[in-house]
Amino acid sequence: MDGKKMRLSHDWVPFKEITPKLQLAVVCSEDQNYLKHFGFDWGAIQKAMKQNEEGKHIRGASTITQQTAKNVFLWPGRSYIRKGFEVWFTLLIEIFWSKERIMEVYLNSIEMGDGVYGAQAATQHWYRKDASSLTPIQAAGIAAILPNPRKYKATSSSSYINNRKTKIMRVMRQVGKIDYDK
Prior knowledge:
The chain is mostly helical. 53% of the residues lie in helices and 2% in strands. The protein has helices spanning 20-30, 42-53, 64-73, 80-96, 99-109, 119-127, 136-144, 159-175, and strands at 9-10, 116-117. The longest helix has 17 residues, at 80-96.
């Protein structure tokens, strides 16, 4: 290891105990077409492939459903075999789970800080409160660190993360709320 003490915090909470503000923040940050696609955002995949071919900063295009499949059923790392399994599990998740269930599992399984897993553990870690009571800016703070939660902090953030929070808040205001019943 790197000499750091390993920390692990996880506390599963039901969907209704996770504020819609956090749900909205992660959709605005991670997967703006979440309610429109069936597990794969083909437009985002095409953009990522084009950008990656041009040799610019490597860009991913994983949806919330794909990230859920990876985090719940698969191992870390990158390989064509793992990606193939991810596609399979993504399809199964979209077939058998509602969008609310996907969001519940996603928000309870993703890393939201170094060794901090799930919405409840993250809100306790970063803001000393329950997942049901985040403010919009706090929800945006957690969503802003998701690209690399071991590197970034939701509080006392770098200018990069503060800029991401501002962008996420702007999109949250435009979107307004998530309507799973559409």
